[in-house]
């Protein structure tokens, strides 16, 4: 009987079905990496403090690393080896600096949503249906994403690239290394290149989603049914294949038809065979529960649960996942952006770790720029995650979730040569790589190029010995216990007192950032009555009859911080319209209703203020006591949307007030007039207004051509005359130059002096001298990134440039403040401020940096507290120390002290 022509191929397929992913027996004996590029020097790193990270190990030691042909050849005390006469060897003395494995970001959209964002370079969400396991992200991966270099500058060397979450199954993810290869292709960036001989069978990767995110294709039951239906069909294919191969094994090949397979579902068949690392984005408990049931019905495991905001509430449920609990990938503090993340908590990493669940910190770039992945680990550590688990959460744990921990995520012989040398302990705020190697190739410092001049300074201001140590952190046991008790929504109302004595105080600042009591070896008491400091010192007579005594344990009393730029106070949940003000009318895009009787539809943020939102109260408990907010319509990074050209009148309020009629709740009813001038957003679905049209409209309004009996005419007249600041949200240097020319024209025409402010201003450094000479102030985003084309030329700072946009402006004498973008960002303001200060390479001291979020910002926006601004008491250290936390807010305006759990 004649053998079918494809018998050999069928036998190979049947054999391959039984193979399982993982390193081949020869992997640990390899001498050359499959990613090695000829001509790469060997590298010897000596005198290093090495954190191996293997198996979440806390072990550190002083020693050396030898990198050769793309792998780690030796690690430890290597003085017995003879390197003296070795050719093509680069030697780096680490000077006892910290060395870790390259960071692994388990959730990014790098290469699919490429910087700068353009409509033609975004292959994010497919609109072709809910179940798309046949799509491959590698087919849309853009190797020219400018965010790669930023990520490497943060120590990130390997990332998982995921499609969007609007599909129930979005497609096949990829794991890449971020260095540019000599070949220049997407395929050559894969951690495991095609055709590798190092691994017997490679893992594959799948992205799927559940919950409210893939709502375009139905509700929650629709989502789970779509998944069940697809997996049921895949299970039928799997059974048919197994039956087919059973017959092949007994010699019945010649009686069989074609091999049973379906190209559209072959990925799901491999999921059921255990050959795929499945990433599932499920945030709420209801979604996680449905997913767990699905895994048990079809017997497949989940490698990582992404976002998973409520996972920390149900660790026992996670353990019921088929095959064991997945790694849970979280943001450290980025919560409350949708309903499912509303119960997210900064204590979640610690709670999950205590329950034995593997914890991963991730960026979801560009939600958080992948460059700041290390900060996610730092903040998780601050809120209680032990240091070895915090570092493991961005190295060995995500590597294990990818099935690649034999190659990346830890330091051991025969691992890939992805290494980071830090300027300080990596869990210290502001820690920056001085050197990054990927596959043994040096990526940081940047290689010489004609447009780069001189060496880049890194580590200025980190000379003290404490920078080399794991930072101490506060005790959060009480807060964590309460968060668990209230299922993520603990009460945030403080204890209110009239008279409080603070003991063991080391330093005191007044409202204009003058130190009343300098740090020293001795501590003092500070007595406060009705929101006013009445004594600094022993104060025995003032201690009698106090409502409360608060031990600051060597802490500090400083002015409260101010936040600006986000919708704080205008919304409860970013993506839930029913919890906010809604979209204001935009006179540049739509007809303004006659009932408003105002051509520009100018509105006041005062009329939309919401008090007692969780984001505002969290900010208050974190030392951010004041907020200024305008009605600027926020841009959604992923979907676009447009900001209003005329964004109305901002207002300034107390983040800790209960309602608008409470004394001290409204600090300034009318603060500034806001407009927005930007190029069209690449992802916007709305009609876009040209820059020239926006400038023409602004010129007309500032020239006074609008009837001053209208709100539009009145407020633009005040702005033109300098009565109120004109805050212009702008990023492009070209547009800023046009605005500076317009300012001069208006001032010459009216004989006035405008108080123009550039907000955002990513490219402001290009015009630093001109901005200074025009007496224009600037409010910068506190964490610079590359987003749209308008801000592509921003200065990233060390280790990519000596200056940030901030430090370049400060050097030229421009008055600068800092802002944040999202309401949930405000409560981590002091940590972002520490990064900005340290990235300035010593151009700012602590007081000058603190002014960026207090007195400078008040002066720029024209906010006055008449000497009765809030003071914040920190226990356990200063505002910049990770050992401290807010113990109380002293409010002179409201005549009380709000005390928190300490």
TrEMBL record:
<dbReference type="GO" id="GO:0006145">
    <property type="term" value="P:purine nucleobase catabolic process"/>
</dbReference>
<dbReference type="InterPro" id="IPR050138">
    <property type="entry name" value="DHOase/Allantoinase_Hydrolase"/>
</dbReference>
<feature type="domain" description="Amidohydrolase-related">
    <location>
        <begin position="343"/>
        <end position="441"/>
    </location>
</feature>
<dbReference type="InterPro" id="IPR006680">
    <property type="entry name" value="Amidohydro-rel"/>
</dbReference>
<dbReference type="InterPro" id="IPR032466">
    <property type="entry name" value="Metal_Hydrolase"/>
</dbReference>
<dbReference type="GO" id="GO:0004038">
    <property type="term" value="F:allantoinase activity"/>
</dbReference>
<dbReference type="GO" id="GO:0005737">
    <property type="term" value="C:cytoplasm"/>
</dbReference>
<protein>
    <submittedName>
        <fullName>Carbohydrate esterase family 9 protein</fullName>
    </submittedName>
</protein>
<dbReference type="Pfam" id="PF01979">
    <property type="entry name" value="Amidohydro_1"/>
</dbReference>
<dbReference type="InterPro" id="IPR011059">
    <property type="entry name" value="Metal-dep_hydrolase_composite"/>
</dbReference>
């Amino acid at each position: 009987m004649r053998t079918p022509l494809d018998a050999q191929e069928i036998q190979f397929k049947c054999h391959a079905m039984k193979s399982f992913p993982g390193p081949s027996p020869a992997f640990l004996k390899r001498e050359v990496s499959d990613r090695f590029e000829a001509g790469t020097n060997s590298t010897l790193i000596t005198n290093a403090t090495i954190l191996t990270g293997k198996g979440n190990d806390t072990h550190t030691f002083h020693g050396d690393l030898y990198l050769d042909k793309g792998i780690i050849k030796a690690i430890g005390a290597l003085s017995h080896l003879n390197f003296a006469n070795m050719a093509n060897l680069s030697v780096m003395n680490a000077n006892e600096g910290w060395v870790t494995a390259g960071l692994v970001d388990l959730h990014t959209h790098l290469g699919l949503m490429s910087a700068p964002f353009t409509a033609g370079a975004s292959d994010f969400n497919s609109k072709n249906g809910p179940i798309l396991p046949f799509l491959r992200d590698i087919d849309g991966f853009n190797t020219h994403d400018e965010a790669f270099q930023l990520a490497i500058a943060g120590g990130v060397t390997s990332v998982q690239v995921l499609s969007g979450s609007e599909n129930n199954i979005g497609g096949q993810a990829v794991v890449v290394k971020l260095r540019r290869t000599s070949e220049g292709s997407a395929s050559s960036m894969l951690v495991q290149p095609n055709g590798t001989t190092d691994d017997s069978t490679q893992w594959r990767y799948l992205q799927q989603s559940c919950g409210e995110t893939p709502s375009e294709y139905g509700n929650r039951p629709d989502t789970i049914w779509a998944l069940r239906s697809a997996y049921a069909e895949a299970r039928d294919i799997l059974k048919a294949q197994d039956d087919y191969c059973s017959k092949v094994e007994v010699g019945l090949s010649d009686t069989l038809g074609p091999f049973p397979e379906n190209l559209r579902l072959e990925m799901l068949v491999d999921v059921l065979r255990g050959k795929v690392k499945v990433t599932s984005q499920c945030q709420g408990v209801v979604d996680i529960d449905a997913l767990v049931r699905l895994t048990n019905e079809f017997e497949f495991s989940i490698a990582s649960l992404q976002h998973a905001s409520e996972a920390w509430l149900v660790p026992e449920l996670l353990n019921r996942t088929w095959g064991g609990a997945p790694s849970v990938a979280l943001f450290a503090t980025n919560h409350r952006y949708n309903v499912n993340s509303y119960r997210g908590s900064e204590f979640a990493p610690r709670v999950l770790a205590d329950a034995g669940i593997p914890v991963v910190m991730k960026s979801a770039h560009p939600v958080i720029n992948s460059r700041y992945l290390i900060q996610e680990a730092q903040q998780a550590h601050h809120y209680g995650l032990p240091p070895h688990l915090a570092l493991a959460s961005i190295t060995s744990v995500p590597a294990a979730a990818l099935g690649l921990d034999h190659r990346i995520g830890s330091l051991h012989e025969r691992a890939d040569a992805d290494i980071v040398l830090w300027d300080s302990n990596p869990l210290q705020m502001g820690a920056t790589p001085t050197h990054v190697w990927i596959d043994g190739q040096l990526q940081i410092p940047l290689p010489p190029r004609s447009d780069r001049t001189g060496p880049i300074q890194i580590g200025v201001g980190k000379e003290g010995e404490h920078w080399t140590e794991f930072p101490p952190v506060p005790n959060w046991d009480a807060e964590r216990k309460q968060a668990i008790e209230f299922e993520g929504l603990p009460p945030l109302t403080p204890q209110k007192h009239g008279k409080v004595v603070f003991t063991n105080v080391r330093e005191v600042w007044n409202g204009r950032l003058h130190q009343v009591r300098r740090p020293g070896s001795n501590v003092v008491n500070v007595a406060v009555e009705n929101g006013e400091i009445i004594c600094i010192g022993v104060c025995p007579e003032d201690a009698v009859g106090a409502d409360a005594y608060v031990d600051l344990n060597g802490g500090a009393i400083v002015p409260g911080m101010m936040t600006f730029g986000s919708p704080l106070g205008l919304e409860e949940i970013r993506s839930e319209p029913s919890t906010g003000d809604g979209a204001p009318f935009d006179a540049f895009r739509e007809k303004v209703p006659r009932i408003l009787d105002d051509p520009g539809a100018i509105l006041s943020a005062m009329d939309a203020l919401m008090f007692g939102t969780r984001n505002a109260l969290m900010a208050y408990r974190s030392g951010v006591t004041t907020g200024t907010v305008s009605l600027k319509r926020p841009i959604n990074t992923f979907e676009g949307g447009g900001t209003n050209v005329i964004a109305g009148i901002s207002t300034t309020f107390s983040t800790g007030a209960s309602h608008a009629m409470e004394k001290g709740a409204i600090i300034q009813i009318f603060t500034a007039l806001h407009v927005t001038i930007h190029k069209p957003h690449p992802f916007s679905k709305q009609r876009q207004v040209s820059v020239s049209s926006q400038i023409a409209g602004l010129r007309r309004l500032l020239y006074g051509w609008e009837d001053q009996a209208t709100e539009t005419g009145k407020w633009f007249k005040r702005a033109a005359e300098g009565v109120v600041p004109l805050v212009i949200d702008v990023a492009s240097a070209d547009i800023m130059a046009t605005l500076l020319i317009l300012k001069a024209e208006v001032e010459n025409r009216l004989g006035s002096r405008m108080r123009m402010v550039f907000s955002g201003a990513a490219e402001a450094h290009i015009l630093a001298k001109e901005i200074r000479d025009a007496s224009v102030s600037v409010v910068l985003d506190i964490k610079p990134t590359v987003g749209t084309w308008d801000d592509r030329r921003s200065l990233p700072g060390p280790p990519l440039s000596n200056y940030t946009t901030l430090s370049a402006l400060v050097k030229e004498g421009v008055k600068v403040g800092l802002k944040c973008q999202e309401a949930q960002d405000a409560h981590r303001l002091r940590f972002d401020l520490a990064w900005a200060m340290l990235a300035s390479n010593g151009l700012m001291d602590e007081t000058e940096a603190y002014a960026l979020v207090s007195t400078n910002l008040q002066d720029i926006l024209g906010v006055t507290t008449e000497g009765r601004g809030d003071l914040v008491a920190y226990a356990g250290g200063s505002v910049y120390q990770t050992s401290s936390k807010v113990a109380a807010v002293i409010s002179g305006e409201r005549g009380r002290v709000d005390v928190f759990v300490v």
